[in-house]
Amino acid sequence: MDINSIMSSNLLQLQQTVQMSVLRNAMNMETVAAIGMLEGMSQSAATHPHKGTVVDIQA
């Protein structure tokens, strides 16, 4: 093999490695952001739409 094909192969492998690293970092950042958003949500229970409401049934 000549030096050009070796360098081309090494460059391709380096590009793939960098792409995977960037993708992994982006996914980690999105995961951290999603966890932060979930932790920031209020922990109160949602109210039921009709339980506990007063109903007037007088005739």
TrEMBL record:
Highest rank taxon of the organism: Bacteria
One Pfam family in the UniProt entry: YjfB_motility
Name of this chain's protein: Putative motility protein
Species this protein is from: Psychrobacillus psychrotolerans
